[in-house]
Amino acid sequence: MYIFTCENTFEDMMCCIYHAWEKALKVGHGCVRLEKRGEEQISLFDEYIYVEYNEEEYKKVVRSIKHKISEEAYACVYYACLSSEQDALDTAYRFLIKGFKIGSDITFMRNDPDVMRIKDIRRKVLHETRYFMEFARFNSIGNKVYVCHLEPESDVIYEVSLHFADRMPSENWLIIDDNRKKSVVHTTDGQMYIRYFTDYDMSVLAKTEDVNDEYTDMWKIFFETIAIKQRYNPECQRNLMPVWMRKHVTEFQ
After folding, report:
1. What does the alpha-carbon distance between residue 213 and residue 223 come to, in Å, rounded to a whole number?
2. Concatenated DSSP letters for 182-223?
3. Mean pLDDT across the chain
């Protein structure tokens, strides 16, 4: 078995698919598997091949998916690559094998296990994205920049940032993924960009959560005031707002 691995970014995964497919043309798709780096299950009988990013290969794969299958298929693959599920990358690869044979109809074949699996992964990623759109809380730093910390399981902070770019276009803000040590930075009336941080950067940025302003206190008071003690239901609250998502939510601090 040939195991192709890559970094946990969408662009690197597209390059990984490119090289895996190239190898599969010689040995067969059944002899190839894809895994994100750091999630490999090492075996003495498998050959591991690490794939680095190549812009031309990345563009070729994206263009082929959109033109030869469909935009909907591309969306399925894109969200699968954002997922934290261990089999997500290989599932995307299996989905594409069938997609390039069948065409755009592949996304409607809900009785196919690979299609069902990638749809399920996509649904979970979108669900998590919507959760964090609601749970994101910003701290104002010196009335100059707003900072938000999140710890999503899937790599969804860019998708979350699109939501706030539409609602806070004239503000300086950044949304930080503490798990992946990266952030989406938005400048006033400007574009967004992704920045990666060092451990030292993260230790400095962690202090931004200790900053409280009048709005922080007002929000906590509001949250406590509207609560109806007689209807307090922690089990229902956990269903609507899982505990692992509350770490950076102001009203739970």
Report:
1. 16
2. EEEEE-TTS-EEEEE--HHHHHHHGGGGG---HHHHHHHHHH
3. 90
Strand partners, 103: none
Positive or negative CA dihedral for 41, 46, 48, 49? negative
Question: Which two structure tokens, joined as six digits, stand for 65?
Answer: 């998916």
**Do residues 91 and 53 touch, judged by C-beta distance below 8 A?**
no
Q: What tens digit of pLDDT does each residue of 64-116 get? A: 999 999 999 999 999 999 999 999 999 999 999 999 999 999 999 989 999 99
Q: How far is CA 32 from each of CA 2, 21, 48, 76, 93, rounded to the nearest angstrom?
A: 5, 8, 10, 21, 10
236, with CB counted inside 10 A (0-12, 13-18, 19+), is exposed
β-strands 173-177, 138-141: how paired?
Answer: unpaired
For residue 192, give every residue at least 6 positions away whose Cβ sits within 8 Å of its Cβ, in sequence order, or none: 158, 161, 162, 165, 184, 185, 186
Across 22-31, 136-145, 160-169, least confident range: 136-145
| Angstrom distance (rounded) from CA 253 to CA 210 | 10
